[in-house]
Structure formats: structure tokens, C-alpha cells
Amino acid sequence: MEDFGVEQVMRSALYYPHTEVTSLGLLQTALLLWDHLEYIQPFEHFRPNYIKHPDCGRGMEVIGRGHYPSGEEKKEAHALIDDFTRQGLPSAFYIDAQEYRAAPDDTRRSYEIWPGKLLFDTWKLLERRGLVDKTQSATKDYVLTPSAGLTVMSILADCCAGSTRRRVTDRSLAYHTIAALLSADDDNPRPDDRAHLEDLVTTSLEIVDARAIPLEKLIAFREREERSSRALRYRYVDRIESYMKRLSGLKRKSDQDEVKRQFKIDMEDDLAALRDALRYSSKEVLKSREIITAGFAWLGVIAGAVTGLVNPLLGGFVTLSSAPTMIGTLWGARDKYRSSRGAILEKYPMAFLMEFKAAF
Predict the structure, then answer these.
(1) Beta-ladder partners of 55
(2) Which residue ranges make up each domain of the chain?
(3) Which runs of E-coded beta strand occur in the chain?
(4) pLDDT value at residue 293
(5) Burial class of 343 by CB neighbour count within 10 A (0 to 12, 13 to 18, 19+)
(6) If DSSP codes are grouped into helix, strand and coil, which group holds residue 96?
(7) By C-alpha distance, which of 14, 5, 345, 29 is closest to 204?
(8) What was the pLDDT predicted at 6?
């Protein structure tokens, strides 16, 4: 079994707040990093609609997976929502707030959530506290203000993701606005995890000059992923995760920039060391006794045929009979190099991106 560190976590991610992933940038990151990109579905056997976003739909066919909240997850979400809504919230959260009701119908924005994502008791709780429109929409979804709806989905995502899936969203600006509403003293909210994650992934891709590889090729790469390349991906993800942990506790941008600078140097050094190790391995194979012996044998046969030192009939016999042995020797050397190369790749996080780039 491969050793990828003590914590075998974050092999998959959970997307929120919607049921469809429409961000190509997020999808590309997911294809590079995770086994699966899950989304919160409202009922069993739900199928998202990607008619307007066929490229995203193609990628989600490969790594997408629906996650229907379990009874335990819904109960956990209920308790957290109950606790959160007990406190006085900004007016932007309340469906009956004057500024929300006073807005013209064509400009009033709302957030609709499928009933099946939460317990019925949770919806009744939200209704009693003025956060849900008592009159459901034509689609029978529950109607909330954007601030309330996005917050509820963030809480539910926490419960569904647990400690083994990374939470990712493409509504970062909206969540920053909500954070500012809830924390009046937070004038400069920190970038979310996805912003840090994309910075690290982009930096590592630029090191191997693979940033411009089209989405369809990335999808094809994941479709034919084998166990060996998956192991390389895991080691790469582990390095990303280690830097994500360092970034998560930093508030100052200067500190975040310094950690990202260190990451860039670390990955550049890793790639350089990997290339040096591969060059050394190939030289060792070329200098091996098997290769030298096979090479002299071939030269002897060729020299004999050219100079006529061997009887033409005997020379032909020697050439044909020696070929299988010499080819077998060379084939064994090739296997030896492949084995050596594989062992080297497993030691370096940047090996995954180097192999990924080499595939195209």
C-alpha cells in the first residue's frame, strides 16, 4: 500500500450551493485534484441539467457524484440552523424585510431551495423566524432571500462534507458579502479556500507549462487514469493540502503571498530534482552490464556480416539465432528502466503534472 502521509483526507470535494457546476475553472481544478466532485442533490436519482453548459456536463460525467443528505446530516443541519437563526440577523436575511418587499418584482432577487434538502421541521423553523416565504414558488421550492438561502446551503454543505471532503463554491463574492453583513468589524474579509487552491494549482501548472491544456484533453486524461497515475495525483494533492493548511490560518495578505512564494520554489525544486533523478536512472541503465553485453553482441554480428569474416550461410544462422537472446536482454533492460522510473516518480509531487503534460 502506498504511503501518502498520516492523514488520508480530501480525496474528494463537495460543491455548493447549487446542484449544477457551471464554472469551468472550478471543474478544471476538480479534474486535476479529486476523485469526485460531489453536489447536494434534493432527492435520490436526481440528475442535474447541463443543457446550457455541455462542457461542464461532460466533465461532471467523469467525476461528478450526487450527494443526497442523510437523515443524520439533515438533523445536524437543523441544529446548526436553529442556533444560527436564534440571534438577531441583518435585515437582508428576512423575507418580510421592508427593503426586500419594497423592491420591484422584476428586480427583487430571491434564492430557492428544493424541499428535500432539509427536514420538514427545519422549513417550519425557518418560516416561524421569518426567513422563508410562506407562499411557495411555482416550482414548489422554498423561497428565501439570497443572504438567507446561501447561508443555509453553506451550513448544509458543512454537514454533508464532514472532515473528508473539501468544500468548494463558485459564489465567493456572495459569501464575502454575507460575511461582511454578519461581521461589521471585518472590513477586509480573507480570500476563501477556493481562491488559495486555484492560486496553488495555477502556479504548479505554470511551472510545467501546462496551464493552456484544453478541458477536453483534461477530461480524456481522467477517463483513462490508471492506478499508477492516481497514486501520483494523490501525492500531488497531499502537497497542495499541506500548503492549504498553512494558508488557512493567515489573515495578512503579505503572509499569504509569502507562503505561496515558498510553494512555488518548493515545486520548482521538486521538479528539478525529479528530472535529475530520471536522467541519472537512464544513464545507469545504459551503463548496465546487460546493455553493454547486448550492444557488443549486436556489433559482433554486424561486423561479421559486413567484413565477410563469417561464412555467409553461417553468418545468417548466427544473426537469426542470436537475435532472440539479445532482444530479450534489451527488453529486460527496458523493464528495468520502467521499474526504476516508476519508483522515482512515486517520490515527487510534481511527477503527476509532468506525466500529465507529457500525455499531450
Answers:
(1) none
(2) 1-189, 191-360
(3) 12-15, 37-40, 64-67, 111-113, 142-144, 165-168
(4) 53
(5) exposed
(6) coil
(7) 29
(8) 37
